Amino acid sequence: MDTNKDQWSSRIGFILSSAGAAIGLGAIWKFPYMTGMNGGGAFFLLFIAFTIIIGLPLLIAEFVIGRGAGREAISAYKKLAPKSGWSIIGRWGVFGSFVLLSFYSVVGGWVLLYCLLSIPGLIIKTGADYEQLFGSITANPLWTITGLGLFLIINIIVVSFGIKNGIEKASKVMMPLLFVFFIILVIRSVTFEGASTGLEFFLQPDFSKITGESVLYALGQSFFSLAVGFSVMVTYSSYLGKDVSLPFAAGSVSLMNIFVSLLAGLAIFPVVFSFGLEPTEGPGLLFMVLPEAFAQMPFGEVFLSLFLLLFLFAILTSSFSMLEIITSAFTINKNRSRSKVALIAGIVVFIAGIPAALSSSSMKNVTIFNLTIFDASDFLVSNILLPGGCLLIALFIGIRMDKTLMKQEFSYSNDLSPFIYKLWFQIMRWLVPVTIIIVFLSSTGIL
């Protein structure tokens, strides 16, 4: 089956699906705790700068490559650079997506479990210790592995239906609803007593707290939250028609991503400081803060259930893109059933994700460079594989891709001046690779 016979049905469907692929855990789960652990407002400013200066050009680049080739990640580079080794970028992306999905699905399983517990009212309770609740869930091997499995089953079903009838339909319904409920949460969060301290932490930058490692994390966060570096957006844009402006689509996705990150910070940090929690709690921060916020609202359990459900779908729209790049790589031009490949890929990801799921229980003492398997997987993806993939894509744009095709894809359906294209190309050719190399070398202490 040739997956490229499937197409996005509309421009808004593509943008919302791409935004869904980008937003997910990157903006809602990971951004708040990374910001809390790396200086608050200063980290947020670095994140915005990297998103606009580095992430946005890279997102445009992936769109240009994907639509220009009309193929999924591996085949795209083979078509654009035949009889060369550039297809390693697509293979890098498939491998990176596999690693990312294996631990990403663990967090997705946590959210799914919270959804199921919130429906009968088992989360919000008078005097409840939400930190202890989160710890008890993540320390239970049966629960975490069950959550992992259920989360991947949903992914397999949706990806089996394809682009238009699966991924796009889910994204067009759930992403707008997520924005609405997020804004409701922010309004309640900033009205807590003591919320101003959290707002100052998030919005008032203190650059004395920034280290070389923080800069690398901010760069990695911009890649993680925009879903660039693994050629996921190459695959998504391969299903796109010529009537969509790629710079406009990429700009829309980037702005939505920054906006959701802002909403996440405004929703989380006022509550963190109001209830005396530590902003450096790490990956569990969101699961401890959300119940605290909703517990203060009328019908809090209902609102918590709805938000967790929508949060789950935001996470799913991201994980769909990861499973899609893996599935499409093994179905295109190979006459294989999409549903069977998605099922096999899901099973393999499930097996690979079990060690990460057990990192807070039976395998918590198993470490890699003093990191749990879960944290080591996160570090590998965010700080090595993603920046490495982005560097390879920048080099491909600057060195190998046909410049005529590149300019055509950049210029379709927009009235941007030729200067904008030239500026984008020079940023991709020089600024992006140099920045990635300098930040990486600085973080390792070489510079």
From TrEMBL:
Membrane protein topology class: Multi-pass membrane protein
Coiled-coil portions: none
Tagged with keyword Chloroplast: no
Main subcellular location: membrane
One Pfam family per UniProt: SNF
Origin: domain of life: Bacteria
Keyword annotations from UniProtKB, A to Z: Membrane, Symport, Transmembrane, Transmembrane helix, Transport
Keyword Transmembrane helix carried by entry: yes
Subcellular localization(s) per the UniProt record: Membrane
Similarity comment text for this entry: Belongs to the sodium:neurotransmitter symporter (SNF) (TC 2.A.22) family.
Name the record gives this protein: Transporter
Higher taxonomy: Bacteria, Bacillati, Bacillota, Bacilli, Bacillales
